[in-house]
Amino acid sequence: MVKPFLALFFVLSFLGMAFNVGAEEQSFEELVAELPDTNFKTLPALLDKFAEQDDPRTAILLTNLLGGDVYYHPRSQQVITMTKVQGERQFIDVLTSEVIAEPSGVRLRKVRVNNSVRSHIRQLQAQQNISDSNPDVRLKAVKNLLSDVDQISPQLLANRLQKEQDSDIHALLSAIAALHELDSGDESKQLDAINTLRGNLQPDVRIALMQLQQRDALPETVRDALNSTLAGIETQRKWYGWAENIFFGVSMGSVLLLAAIGLAITFGVMGVINMAHGEMIMLGAYTTYVIQQAFPGLIEYSLLMAVPAAFLVSGFVGIVIERSVIQFLKGRPLETLLATFGISLILQQLVRTVFSPLNRQVAAPEWMSGSLQINPVFSVTYNRLYIILFSLTVFFALMIFLKKSSLGLHVRAVAQNRDMARALSVKSNWVDAATFGLGSGIAGVAGVVLSQLTNVGPNLGQSYIIDSFLVVVFGGVASLWGTLVSAMTLGIVNKFLEPVTGPVLATIIVLVGLVFFIQKRPMGLFPQKGRAE
Amino acid sequence: MLAKLMRLSSVQRVVSILAIVGIYVILANTLFPEGSFFHVSSYSVNLLGKYLCYALLALALDLVWGYCGILSLGHGAFFALGGYAMGMYLMRQIGDRGVYGNPELPDFMVFLNWDSLPWFWQGSDSFVWMIAMVVLAPGLLAYVFGAMAFRSRVSGVYLSIMTQAMTYALMLAFFRNEMGFGGNNGMTDFKDILGFSLQSDTTRLVLFGLTVVILAAAYYLCDRIVTCKAGKIITAIRDSESRVRFVGYNSASYKVFLFTFSAVLAGIAGALYVPQVGIINPGEFSPINSIEIVIWVAIGGRGTLYGAIIGAVVVSFAKTRLTGIMPEAWLFALGGLFVLVTLLLPKGLVGLFDKRFPAKKNTTAQENAA
């Protein structure tokens, strides 16, 4: 006789459980039905109940509430969101998530929210987001929490900590937990928390620790741990600050390298100072602009097209200049300097007349924007990263070209001894034209790169010509390695001076330093081997 | 009279032409009434004064480039330094008539909330001190720069680029407000010099006359330098420096002397220029200005002192005219001139003239220059 009773008991208790669940957790539909009857005081409690549910519609509802877009029908009590999509009002039933026609004949009543409700909603959203299934959403939500750790209750946090699989997010969550503990007042908990935060580079963690340090009543042990942890964080920050400076320096150096390397070739091989070199860079930048204008749909590929185009345009102009002017001024470097300066003025004015004296906008493709976040205090932007890689590629390609190809061989032969090369039937005239074209073409490529970093205007070249000369002079004429080393050195030195002295003074210091350097080693860092002149 | 002119030496020729022009302009401006055919307007006097300052500057550059082969692309810096020395003095003369009415500090310092004069402005209200600074500031810079460069035998294009870097660095420095020279805006709104109003026609005439006299004196001095024994050595350095060195001369000290002297001349030109145009700003340091000086000399004919003067006046006149009619065309013209002169007229306008009237042989071996 026991069995039926037991069975009945089980059935009853199951029923009871089911009933209980129903009483505690109302369904989404029931909660929505309560929305019209709320006021500022009761709304937060109702929203908490929403949050306890795992209904995907809740997130949308919360967002719309935050925007003040939730209404209800005064008679049917139907809850509707009204949003503007491209200027048209769009009505959506909250329960079915379907677009409905505008309810006619009645004025919809708004579910009103005030500031305290809004901040409550934001908290709820944060909590919702940290349990989102998408790790990116979770990461963002957790990062937001870090700036205001009181937004989340310790229980909820402990819950998430257990469930979280992603190691990055887990680390952030434990940092938040540790920040909670910092305020607990319990010495051993505080010590644990401080140890957890050791080496954490999040700016918010550092601020929280510094705030704790300001407090008077701290146990000795806690204060010691705090001081050492903060000192450790500061050292790390300093190291990463250096790393960032070096990265910026190298990226600036690689721009200088691109700008100067063409000059190093023409100067080294032909002994020609080309003052119009900066304008070759400018032409390259304008080529990029023209290509983007010509193919507005292909911005993503515009740079890939611009590189060969700029090489050809600038290279062609270079060859024309060489054939029409420079070849007649052989062996008269100062005259060459003046004539090429004249050419640079003409080219500048030409661009001003054709395009306008104003700067032109060159768009950056999608893949060039954004940055690679290595840790909270150190990130590298993609455009600079690509520029470094690109300029090194150009450098080594040029190196291989000069070392391996037959034209490269002739170029080097003419550079070392023009007369001897001619005697061995190298056509030095032809080599000159090709060299000049090559140097100018590379300047054009540099222009493509610069169009991504600075304004494209008629004066673009002028601002780089002096820097380029300095790089060449510093590195030693006709030494490609010298150009590489000196470009990187100048770039890095500049970036390290800048925060201390400001950009203008940094430039001046570098200039003056170089003047002194030339006193000591007039032939540059890597002088060409040979008999002294 | 023309025939008589032809028989004179080049110094006498230039000095007398300058004297004639100067006296004529001053008389024509004061004696003839406005509207008369012979009248020279105050505007023209002012413009001519400006050109003559340029001529002095070109003379200074020609001295080092034409006779010693030092192509300085930074002579504008010395010019601007002289100008700034004068500008500081004029600034202090404004006194409490400035916008802020501060009797001690120039307006831009009040604007920057400075409460006292920086050390390098001490004494700037004295005329004698100003004259000293006009000579010393560019002279000292040129001496230090030249001593360093020439003693370590930096020459040719390297030197040219270094001079350009120098003026570029100075331009950047003077653009800074913290330098204490008025930053971007430079100095302007000058009122008077030695108590005479800069706006009055008489002061302008006097300044013009002074420019003529100083130009003539500078021409005489330069001519003495290039014709004396040291001048022969200087020319020899231009043509073959190593040979001069091997013969036993210390070529560096000749170059340092010449470079410093030339910088002082450029500074004086700047000091004369500022009260006549009424403004000095960091733009004067910009490399393009220095390049323009080079083109004056190249077009006039380097290696002949009077060629520099002709070049400066002709090109500046053309610039005034052309920028008035077609502002766009000026850079085309300037650039084209550079190319054409270097390709076709290595001796400049004077070369053309000399070919037709081969007079005296005082320009030697220009072909080997550079």
From TrEMBL, chain A:
Residues 1-23 form the signal peptide. It is found in: Cell inner membrane. GO terms for molecular function: transmembrane transporter activity. GO terms for cellular component: plasma membrane. The chain crosses the membrane at residues 246-273, 301-321, 385-402, 430-449, 469-493, 500-518. GO terms for biological process: amino acid transport. InterPro entries: ABC_transp_permease (IPR001851), ABC_UrtB_bac (IPR017779), BCAA_transport_permease (IPR052157). It is a multi-pass membrane protein. Belongs to the binding-protein-dependent transport system permease family. LivHM subfamily. This is Urea ABC transporter permease subunit UrtB.
